Amino acid sequence: MKEMTKRRLGVLAALCAALALIVGLMLYAGTAVGAAAYEEDCGDGNHSCSMHEQKLATCTEEGHKAYFQCDKCGKYFMVISDGAGGFKPGNACTWENRRLEKLSHQMTEHECTATCTEGGERTYYHCSLCELNYADQEGTEQLEDVNIGALGHEMQKHEKKEATCTESGMNEYWHCTRCNKDFADEDGEAEAGVLEIPALGHEMQKHEKKEATCTESGMNEYWHCTRCNKDFADEDGEAEAGVLEIPALGHEMQKHEKQEATCTESGRNEYWHCTRCNKDFADEDGEAEAGVLEIPALGHTFKNGECTVCGAKEAEKKPSALKWLAVAAGTLAGVLIVAGVICLVSKKKRR
Predict the structure, then answer these.
(1) Pairing mode, if any, of strands 280-281 and 253-256?
(2) pTM of this prediction?
(3) Which of 58, 135, 146, 166 could be bridged to 141 by S-S, CB 3.0 to 4.6 A?
(4) Contacts of 298 (CB under 8 A, 6+ apart)
(5) Is residue 150 scored above 80 in pLDDT?
């Protein structure tokens, strides 16, 4: 710090020496650009001039070169040598000719050392020429004290993010944008611990493959996660399932023409048979299953001993066994009745 101060003083001394040299040259020459000739009379007798020593400009105040000013009329005059080791008024001049503009600040920025929880110095700018501190680089606001208290946290709340089967989540926390720390509470009293919530993993249920039929769709084998409600092609859930449905196969129909019944053989109605599901249908689209397909045999229709349909001859009629049995039974009954009557008559005669 002492070394820096010495350097600053050296710079200031060099500036002063340069200005002094310029003033000396001007005093020696006794002239200035645009200066008017010296007039003895100011309109109220001779001028009554007072000399003003040179004042060096600083970064906070303007300065001026040495000059004479008449106490009566207020005019400004150059400073020249009187030849006897002193000075006297020279040619008339203006204040602008004598004025020295303020110097620019030589600023060094000092960053803030205060933290969210501890006090320190605020951000400020220090001028190496005037040795003053300022709030801005232009030096418009001077600071008496650069020390400040703790800054306090600048909190941003982060809502809790739930974990999923495949992605981790995050617990609720507050992040300070000033100190870049995470906290478990809004006041920053406790730093956040582990924020990440691990991914949950899938809860899989296997669904076996269901074969498609002619009329009903099937389903490919897949695994369903009850947690994320997604379907997967594998148990580890590495690939989501594509199209699961197996479309209905549709019938493979073969048409069977109608077969007419005859007198002695049954027939069959027209129908379609599916070779895939092995069912019979009344229509080609398989919308209605076939009912009774068989058409019973028609039987003969005889006239004059011949079938009018197929021309078959009517067979000679023979008594049936049942008829002969009935005749035998009748004959036996008659014999038994006659025998009974004879027996009854015989008994009466004996008496």
Answers:
(1) unpaired
(2) 0.48
(3) 135
(4) 261, 262, 263, 309
(5) yes
